Amino acid sequence: MTLSPQTASQMTRDLCRLAPIVPVLVVDELATARPLAEALVAGGLPALEVTLRTPAALDAIREMSQVTGGHVGAGTLVTPADVRAAKAAGATFGVSPGATPALLQACADEDLPLLPGAATATEAMKLLEYGFDMLKFFPAEAAGGAPALKSIGGPLPQITFCPTGGVNPQNAPSYLALENVLCAGGSWVAPQKMVAAEDWAGIEALAKAAAAL
Q1: Which ranges constitute the DSSP H helices of 22-120?
Q2: What's the predicted TM-score (pTM) here?
Q3: Rounded to whole angstroms, what are the CA distances from 109 to 5, 84, 92, 103, 118?
Q4: CA distance 100 to 103
Q5: Residues with catalytic annotation?
Q6: Residue 155 has pLDDT above 90, yes or no
């Protein structure tokens, strides 16, 4: 039984509705994973994306998955091997910068709901043909920002997005105000300096501010 794109989109849509911001996390030190997740969840941001960009990422997903109230996904899924590793580590959803047939099939085979990336109307239409109607808009700012995403929403109102890439506290409200945006992905809620300093109270405060957007 493989996961259909329609079901995957419904599952990722439900996750995107949990909070206006999905933290995009780069975890360098495994010891920081669990307290970081606890701080973000306590601040009102339960859906967490751990990017597979560091050697600690998969172990971080395992640690964070044990935090009550958290929903931990794997970002930067590029190959079928990434998908299998993420699922084995306990990821409950996946996020990709783009989409390939092999990646989509691997997510279906592993029953891992995917938030696939698209930057253009053509890419969004191709994913809609597969059955995906909840997408990541990436790289958001470089691809034209909120005005571009609003324009895509005109002819493609059936697709909803999570913009990621260059989203910050200043421009996030312009994205969140769009009818075709459910949430946005941002890294500012977990600055590397604050993580390194183990300033969990500070990160929780940033999460609370983001959750209130």
Answers
A1: 33-42, 57-64, 80-89, 101-109
A2: 0.97
A3: 11, 9, 14, 10, 21
A4: 5
A5: 49, 136
A6: yes
